[in-house]
Specification:
With 224 residues, the chain is of the alpha+beta class. 22% of the residues lie in helices and 42% in strands. It has two domains: 1-42 and 128-184, no CATH class; 50-125 and 203-221. The chain has two helices and twelve strands; from the N terminus they run αββββββαββββββ. Strands 7-8-9-10-11-1-2-3-4-5-6-12 form a twelve-stranded mixed β-sheet. The N and C termini lie far apart (82 Å).
């Protein structure tokens, strides 16, 4: 093959590689800027001590299953009400934490049960779903992920696919999170066949919500 032809082919390959590299760098830098802006926005909410979050969980493996969690926090008081809908059956579990102890209540179609002063904590908090331990982990996650604009329930959001975070669970086949552009809060997430949708309210939780049910209506179980 003529040396001139070989040289032209090498130049073309070099140009193609250079263009691909520039596009890859632009993609990574764009995603990194978006991620850092979202992290900045959500940082304003992470230390909130008065808010209500509703989370709805669906599972494509179980079409009749729906789990709705309502979490309330005011200062050191917490309440989580978890409703498990399976077809026409409803089971409700409520956990009340007053800053020192947790009381739990279950309601099914057949009975009402209560466990008092149990050694359990409520793990439903606001957190940064894009957080990583190091800056390099974030850069790699940005390079490998895809970020697009979309709309969820009337809110402008980022749809972030295949972002690897040390603070979030990761599915084997599908990973998508939808973050509010203004707040950084997660509005929706998809992990394989599980779908989570979330809503938030801030600074409107009153003490009334933490009033516990009438214990006389419940059968008390011994705490383990």
């Amino acid at each position: 093959m003529n040396k001139k032809i070989i040289k032209k082919i090498l130049i073309i390959l070099l140009i193609i590689i250079s263009i691909d590299l520039v596009l890859f760098l632009a993609h990574t830098i764009r995603n990194y800027i978006i991620v850092k802006n979202v992290e900045k926005n959500i940082s304003k909410y992470l230390n909130s001590t008065n808010y209500h979050m509703t989370a709805t969980q669906l599972d494509n493996n179980y079409k009749d299953l729906k789990i709705i969690t309502n979490y309330y926090r005011k200062d050191n008081k917490e309440l989580a009400i978890i409703e498990r809908h399976m077809g026409d059956d409803l089971t409700t579990m409520s956990m009340y934490y007053d800053g020192e102890k947790t009381n739990m209540y279950w309601v099914t179609k057949d009975e009402k049960l209560a466990s008092l002063n149990v050694q359990k904590s409520i793990y439903v908090n606001l957190y940064n779903m894009l957080e990583n331990d190091t800056k390099w982990q974030t850069i790699v996650a940005c390079a490998l992920s895809t970020i697009k604009s979309t709309n969820i329930n009337g809110k402008d959001c980022y749809k972030i696919s295949n972002y690897m975070s040390t603070s979030s669970m990761v599915g084997q086949d599908k990973n998508e999170i939808y973050l509010d552009k203004d707040t950084g809060l997660c509005m929706k997430s998809i992990m394989d066949r599980q779908i989570y949708e979330r809503k938030y309210e801030f600074d409107n939780v009153s003490d009334d919500i933490f009033i516990e049910p009438d214990i006389n209506e419940y059968k008390i179980q011994e705490s383990n």
